[in-house]
UniProtKB/TrEMBL annotation:
SUPFAM superfamilies: MetI-like. CDD domains: TM_PBP2. Belongs to the binding-protein-dependent transport system permease family. This is NitT/TauT family transport system permease protein. It is found in: Cell membrane. It comes from Aminobacter niigataensis. Its main location: membrane. It comes from the Bacteria. The chain crosses the membrane at residues 29-56, 76-109, 121-143, 149-171, 202-225, 245-266.
Length: 284
């Protein structure tokens, strides 16, 4: 008798993940549909009169004002000068935050003194309301651009500290022992092993700081005057020119997105081996 081999007759089990309809919608279409739905809801609220037009203008009024602000920027008007002042505050504040945040992050992540003595003070300062420090910066640095830069850097520093310190802890014990066995110095271990492996965490801190630095600069302009976009928003708000407030906020959000996208782009170039879930598919 011939033995019957049933090994090839067993059904194969294929596991497949069910993808919902919402997840199959292309990114561009999903974003466009969300925008259209938001504008439609906005128009409906405006038409019904749920909120006073002084408080919430219609989308078409706001759109017209966005066009006006855009033309003023393109023609080199006074709004371009104000935008350039805000851009300088953001760039200088971000640069200072990166420098201070990286140095403090290395101190906290590399030394016991930094972890045990410095970190508790940094956490205590970060838990305080940042806006409360604005009058102090104004008193110390005056009503010029320096106080706004200082507040922007102050708000953006702590995420970079945390990201840098967390990144230095990523390297496992085997990698540390390998470098130690090869006779690498502490400086070589830091720059050739710990920092490269910790870049994803460092860039996470940078992306959070890129958002916070914008809030710091605009808050400084609100509370301490100045000649940037924040001052234009304050003036428009005092005149109950709500469409102008909305349009200026939209252009500020574009500035913030540009800074954030710049960090994401740099991350993709330097940390190409790591897939970031925080940035999502932005820029792809």
């Amino acid at each position: 008798m011939t033995a019957i081999d049933n090994t090839d007759q067993r059904p194969e089990t294929i596991w497949s993940e069910h993808v919902s309809f919402m997840d199959r919608i292309p990114r561009t279409i999903a974003m466009a549909g969300l925008l259209v739905g938001f504008v439609a809801l906005w128009q409906l609220i405006y038409t019904i009169g749920v909120v006073s037009p002084i408080i919430l203008p219609g989308p078409w009024e706001t759109g017209a004002d966005i066009v006006f602000v855009g033309k003023n920027l393109l023609s080199g008007g006074y709004m371009l000068t104000a935008l350039w002042i805000t851009i300088k505050e953001v760039i200088f504040g971000f640069a200072i935050a990166i420098t201070i945040g990286f140095l403090l992050g290395v101190l906290v992540g590399e030394t016991t003194f930094g972890e045990r003595a410095v970190l508790p003070y940094l956490v205590a300062i970060d838990t305080m309301p940042k806006v409360a420090f604005a009058p102090l910066f104004l008193a110390w640095l005056g009503f010029g651009i320096a106080s706004k830069v200082a507040l922007a850097a102050f708000i953006a520093t702590f995420p970079i500290v945390v990201g840098t310190a967390a990144g230095l802890y990523v390297a496992d014990e085997n990698a540390r022992m390998l470098f130690k066995t090869m006779g690498a110095s502490r400086f070589q271990t830091l720059f050739k092993m710990k920092l490269p492996l910790g870049l994803p965490q460092i860039f996470t801190g940078l992306k959070i700081a890129a958002v916070g630095v914008m809030a710091g600069a605009i808050t400084g302009e609100f509370l301490g005057g100045g000649k940037g976009f924040g001052e234009l928003i304050r003036v428009a708000s005092s005149q109950l020119n709500t469409p102008r407030v909305f349009s200026l906020i939209i252009f500020l959000s574009l500035l913030g997105l540009t800074l954030f996208w710049s960090v994401v782009w740099l991350e993709k170039k330097l940390v190409f081996w790591h897939k970031s879930s925080v940035s999502g598919g932005i820029g792809t």
